[in-house]
What we know:
Elements: H1 19-29, H2 32-37, E1 60-62, H3 82-87, H4 91-107, E2 112-114, H5 137-153, E3 157-163, E4 176-178, H6 181-188, H7 190-197, E5 203-206, E6 210-211, E7 214-215, H8 220-230, E8 236-239, H9 250-256, H10 271-279, H11 285-301, H12 308-318, H13 325-338, E9 340-344, E10 358-362, H14 389-397, E11 402-404, E12 412-418, H15 439-451, E13 455-460, E14 475-478, H16 486-495, E15 530-532, H17 541-547, E16 564-571, E17 575-576, E18 581-590, E19 596-606, E20 616-626, E21 631-639, E22 645-647, E23 651-654, E24 657-666, E25 669-678, E26 682-684
Parallel strand pairs: 1-2, 2-3, 3-5, 4-6, 4-15, 5-8, 10-11, 10-12, 12-13, 13-14, 17-25
Antiparallel strand pairs: 6-7, 9-14, 16-18, 18-21, 19-20, 19-24, 22-23, 23-26, 24-25
The chain binds beta-D-glucopyranose (BGC).
Amino acid sequence: MANTTTETPVDFRDASQPIEVRLAFLLAALTVEEKLSLCAGKNFWQTKPVTRLGIKPFKMTDGPRGVAFHSSWKRCTAFPSGIAQAASWDESLMERFGEALADECKSVGAQTILAPAINITRTPLNGRTFEYLSEDPLLNARLTVPMVKGVQQQGVAACVKHFAVNNQETNRIRVSSEVSERALQEIYLPAFKAAVEEADAWSIMAAYNAVNGVAACENSSLLQDILRDGYGFRGFVVSDWFAVRRTSSGAACVKSGLSLEMPGKGSKCKTKALSAEFSNGDFTEAELDDAICGLLRVMLLTGHLDGAADADHAQSENQGCRNTPEHQALSREMAEGGLTLLKNTQKLLPLNPEKHKKIALLGPKLKKKNCLPLWGGSAGVWPPYEVTPWQGLQAQNNNRFEWVKKPADADAVLLFVGLSHRFGQDSEGVDRKHLDLPEKQQQLIKQTLAVNPNTVVVLINGGPLAMPWVDDVPAVLECWYPGMEGGTAIAQVLFGDANPSGKLPVSFPKRLQDSPAHQSPRSYPGDREKVHYDEDIFVGYRHFDQQDIEPLFAFGHGLSYSQFEYSNLTLNGKSFAADDCLQVSMTLTNASERAGAEVVQLYIGDCDHGKERPPQSLKGFNKVYLDAGESKQVEFILPLEQLRIFSEEKLWHLKAGHYAVRLASSSRDIRLEQIVEITTEAQWEREACNAESC
Ligand code: BGC
């Protein structure tokens, strides 16, 4: 293979030139061999250098709840896990999280953070439910966008993963997700679309699984038609680690738009194998350029090629940009924002020292740490310290409460139960087998309740759980995996120094059979070849609503120590054309003596939904902070175009008809409603999704 260039132009390093000009110089400067060498990694976390041009290895690091030890050899801030982040329903917190994550990423010398992880929670058993955000495409998208922006504003690439339809760990490497185009467009892709279109995500990770028979890493329908042509993605697509092994050839990956195989020297995309395929005419240099130019562009955008990233790294090392008190405080704030009070009868919480002076602290999760290297898989982060619930309770007590050993002697019991990141519980690689807490813990709940009914069950776990004991327990606090400052946040909420404001980002079913993916073995777990998404768009609450099944706790549910009143729903009309904007406003009042936050949720009900459509969908939300007694106007502006739906025959279209505008405290707690009419129909083009595999 001959060098196409012998000169070494230096212009691509000139940061004063426009990126696209520098990119063109760079592409012209690289030989075919050098380009091919960029298609697979050098080792576990880096690309190969191009020494002749002074291009150093470009570094990536996990992951979605902090910079991971296994990819940085540094102990870094451990933030709450994905589902805990999502339970905050707080966009500005996600942006600040993104910024902090980027700082920590730079401080370990990496240019890409392998986060956020945004696959839809299709089954509560997915081992990675703790790592992902939500079952709802709108919540997923709205939280992803600020997080990606936060990361990239700091000059670090966010790598949004796993593209696409990677919703279970069982057979994850070989299974094909058999999914309709309607479910793809309405449920599984919107957050990726938003990440690219609204936040200009610089990187996407192609998933392990296949989608409709074609491995994600060589799926040109996904990577080319949808991602690049449809959404206008201009960054790089990296394979999930070792995912390329299950593809048919390196040439197929290159042609479909995969930029980089990770890790190591690659399997199908190693230079030798690709060179042979190139010489054979299996792909062209133009196709190669298309595949790698996104990687080169992101090298430029992150300052990797002009020394800016090195300077940033040196500076952030000097200034100690990881594990700062600010990042730790943010981790605590995020933990607090995500704590979700599921039940609180008799106002048992917050604990009141006048009524509940003597407290018994019990349970296997009281003193457990959850932030350890690779604990839970690639999302595991090892922070310099972790405040366990026990430590948090000691530190925040301030002599208000007295600890007693026996539950029978206590005025109230705090019982810490849940799961861990052990394989088969909340962990990458393996799904959970069932929804239950371990048998021993269920026994412990029963025994404790028998001697003291004032028992608060405090849950540390990463997703829906069955709670056959729930009717006997006065209070349940879901803490998720709350990160290195979790113990402090938990103590503050239990003692009333903080007011819980988390809301469920996923539905909690009463029984596994109530869940949409669990209607037959074909729909979960499928076999080694295929898993059929038979529930189609009826994922999460869309299914519970359509089938009229009562969930254990509904999507969007979460209590506060304050009481919020919803009033004065006002709309800008009753009858609209398809291209109008609906303006919704209401008054939210904190009718309590405690400052607190409420997530006001906007659902639009489809009054003529029939069997084909979900009865309602989330179309907006607003987390509102109110002082005691304070009222605020809450406003939503909804372009009616956002009510469009997808069908294989009609593509995207907006149906004329009646719609219910609902303002709600959860998907099952509708506080205000008015009916409007849309009088005209509208139709949109298919969004670049025309390939066989869709
Ligand atoms: C995971 C990715 C992760 C990668 C690198 C894979 O097992 O699926 O999410 O980024 O490993 O650790």
